[in-house]
Amino acid sequence: MTRWGLIGASTIAHEWVIDAIRATGGEIVSVMSTSAERGQKYAADHGIGKSVTTTADLVGDPQVDAVYISTTNEMHRDQAIAAARAGKHILCEKPLATSLSDARAMVKAAEDAGVVMATNHHLRNAATHRAMRDAIAAGRIGKPLSARVFHAVYLPPHLQGWRLERPDAGGGVILDITVHDTDTLRFILGDDPVEAIAFSQMGGMGKAGLEDAVMGVLRFKSGVIAQFHDGFTTRFAETGLEVHGTEGSLIGRNVMTQRAVGTVTLRDAEGEHDLPLDHRNLYETALSAFHAAIAGKGRPSATGEDGIWSLATGLAVVEAAQTGRTVKIEPGL
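The chain above was modelled as a monomer; its predicted structure follows.
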């Protein structure tokens, strides 16, 4: 059994990750919050035996085997490096950091320590996206030519806070949502993006000059071009992902979500039909793979290197939106 420490008494841990850890055989022994009062209440609410106020106290605990980091983005680097040096396996929220140099330092620290490091890109665990990946790999749409991602949603009040107020923490829609688009496209296409162009928007939710919506295009190594629309401001939109090839199209609807829902339709010369899907909890799929990787059986569903790719793309989109230029995507791996 893997014993976990939570670095951050977060909403995402409360809503998704705590249950996924427990459902896949893990135990949560400690939680860290810089607020002793918040940490103690969080521990009591979630049946966690110990609450501490510093990263050092948590990673120094011999009862902790692995950590889940879900603090704000600017804190990830130091917390992940401290965990690696203490010999703890690491599951870190995206984006891994606010700069590529920090993200690379995190991955290197994990490699040097011989611990497993993963990025919590949940969407590649969806049955919908796995079905799309498998259909493309099997040649069912021929050569992929283009893709479209609709990931414009409404950011609910309980998640707003720093995402709309703190540029220093990596706030804004691009580092929150566009990084997910990138990882999902890389997973489905088996391809890497090489350049980005984008326009961002401030539609009244983002503060301190932070964008709350963005549209843009990524070009991939193979020549595939992918359009994306991400937002915090669209109350009534649905999400989707489409991939169009020389011999067919895959149409995913309601697929860019934390919930195990959505449909995928294949359209080709023979007509239109829905792909069979085995919907499972996305986070439980991720935690099962992570626990297996710790045991030396396979890899996490999204590695630290995957996290570097998505951050590099997000930062390129930020720069493209600010400058109006096409920006190369250079993860430095």
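The chain has two domains: 3-115, 125-284+311-328.
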